[in-house]
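#onboarding

Welcome to the new folks! Below is a worked example of what a typical request in this channel looks like: someone posts a single protein sequence, and someone else replies with the predicted structure as tokens. Don't worry about understanding the tokens yet, we'll cover that in week two.

Example request:
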Amino acid sequence: MSAATYRDVFAEPRFRGLFAARTVWMAAGTLQILTMSVVVYRETGSPLLGALAFGAGFLPQVVSGLLLGASADRFPPRRLILGGYLVEACVAATLALLHPPVGLALALIAAVGLLAPLSNGATGRLVADALTGDAYVLGRAAISMSSSGAQLVGLAAGGVAVAALGPRNALLAACAGHLLAVLIFRLTAGRGDPPVEARSGTVLRESWSGARRLLADPPVRRLLFAQWLPPAFSTGGEALLVPYASSRGWPATTAGIMLAAVPLGMLVGDLLVSRLVRPATRERLVPLLIAVIGVPLTLLAVRPSPVVAVGLLVVAGFGLSYLLGLQRPFLDAVPEEGRGQAFTLLSTGMMTLQGIGPLLGGLAAEALGPAPVMALAGVAILIVAVGVRRENRLSQPSAVS
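Example response:
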């Protein structure tokens, strides 16, 4: 397989439109989540409810991913994406203009979370339809980098927007962002959808049986867990950075810089690995790059200086570029007629485990302290790296093609 370039990727108009719309949508969603977390905390004074507002959209994704995942193959993906963007715009407008009670606001946020796996699955299906070979891998890398960048911008701009505009106007700005994403996608992402086959049976039954079938396939299952586990352990460790910095007597600004170090490293890693490393080499480097995530987390337990700690976290973020080496093997492993559900299941598992990781890490840190738990997260990632290394079909999945 020959190496592609980002010029090849962005020469495809359908991908350009999808990329631009998704970037705007991600930034608007991040602004909305941050604003609602501030609003709920101000109204209730409860850190728990404030945190719940930040994460209420993640847990419902388990339900929709398992029970509605087949929708990404049964319905035109463009309609699923446009519908998701429009629903989020309506919810943002409702939160801004009607100011519902906290309980209802959290329910609306959770309801939106039900749509996220379907949108992600439809996005993956469209990318696979628009791009082939190494261009597909670079396309996934571009979307990953734009998501990280949009989240960084959304978080940075969100605090400024809430302070300068007030929560109500910040939510209206998020609504405008979602509508802009709809407009961009509608005008630039093309009008053609991948073919949709008529299928018998209900969406619920097909989704559940499809998820079981994917998880029962050993190569697919290994590829799923290889993409799920390292980010889950990494997020569990990163969630303790604020108490870790506090336990070291460092100022709050240091914790903020540490939190930004991982996505920064991920951006750099995705850019360099996708541009400079040949496709076959990326796949062989998967175990090594997974280990690159775990080693820095383990070294945080030896109490490095703030500068060294930030550097270690940048390196850990760089290691997350290992996911690029699994994109093509995963696409090859899943049946073409079930790609939408496969991408939905992949997204659901990643989001769910990245939500569970911080919860388990926080509970463990209550007993052990943040530094030991972060080190344990690093050791767990190293164990995964060893396991992946033993699976030749993960590191060399294209040998038979």
